[in-house]
């Protein structure tokens, strides 16, 4: 039976004989608008919620490590990744909590692991980016930006000097350039150097790694070599730079050592190259200079892996155990005395010492640190 009074095609309800065309017309617009909304790109809020849900699913899929060392390694990996994603204000606040000395000329921070000093390809956030914010946190909204006085590698932790005025920064930079600044580092090494104290005086040059196009490393360029059992002078590269490092063993075990390093010169990656290629004792966590011919995670002995509670497949997450523990600046006007600055090593560094059976010399370090802090107050 045809429906009277209903010209538009509609829906029939069995037994009622009523046309639902009007209802269809009433709801057709909202349905169309909903479909169109679904086809449109996600707005920022919905996209953020979706990404957050995906990350949460990935976290739930990964089994949590039961070993406390592996948990700490995972925390460190996440921390270094978060450093590149945090807001500049958050990073500046974190740096302000790590200040070890502050006066009218200088601000000294304890640089965290994994944070680059300067920008570059792939760098989303670095220390130089947040210096204006750090200055405002310390001296108010009208404060001028702080200035870098020197640099540390991304993977190196410890003492880092900043200056309030550009002129003071230039003075400190000149002290570094003329080698008037005394720098001391701590490093945990794989194997124990022989002899346990000495000087490595071997020039360093940058070369392209074998079998690795467009990948360059620093390496040794010795001035002397062996010929028929005799030491003879060889022609070194014209690009080689003088590099001198003093070292001494502070503590050692069968398979590892804690070294105090004092670089006389300041060549790129000098300490890492001298230890790995000069003394055959690479720094723990140095995945770049543990092997010249390969760019691969550091290969560790079964004994060290057992003590650290790690598997070789997880060794790539080990951080570089190189810490700038002390820096002594000559007197700057109007200050009449030299300034000795010290930084405690990060927690992962101390934990590795304990697991490897190495002792950290705390008596002299603690006394100097107390004196420096009392002077800062």
TrEMBL record:
<dbReference type="InterPro" id="IPR020103">
    <property type="entry name" value="PsdUridine_synth_cat_dom_sf"/>
</dbReference>
<dbReference type="Pfam" id="PF00849">
    <property type="entry name" value="PseudoU_synth_2"/>
</dbReference>
<dbReference type="InterPro" id="IPR050188">
    <property type="entry name" value="RluA_PseudoU_synthase"/>
</dbReference>
<feature type="domain" description="Pseudouridine synthase RsuA/RluA-like">
    <location>
        <begin position="105"/>
        <end position="276"/>
    </location>
</feature>
<dbReference type="InterPro" id="IPR006145">
    <property type="entry name" value="PsdUridine_synth_RsuA/RluA"/>
</dbReference>
<dbReference type="GO" id="GO:0005739">
    <property type="term" value="C:mitochondrion"/>
</dbReference>
<dbReference type="GO" id="GO:0003723">
    <property type="term" value="F:RNA binding"/>
</dbReference>
<dbReference type="GO" id="GO:0001522">
    <property type="term" value="P:pseudouridine synthesis"/>
</dbReference>
<comment type="similarity">
    <text>Belongs to the pseudouridine synthase RluA family.</text>
</comment>
<keyword id="KW-0413">Isomerase</keyword>
<feature type="region of interest" description="Disordered">
    <location>
        <begin position="51"/>
        <end position="71"/>
    </location>
</feature>
<dbReference type="GO" id="GO:0009982">
    <property type="term" value="F:pseudouridine synthase activity"/>
</dbReference>
<protein>
    <recommendedName>
        <fullName>Pseudouridylate synthase RPUSD4, mitochondrial</fullName>
    </recommendedName>
</protein>
<dbReference type="InterPro" id="IPR006224">
    <property type="entry name" value="PsdUridine_synth_RluA-like_CS"/>
</dbReference>
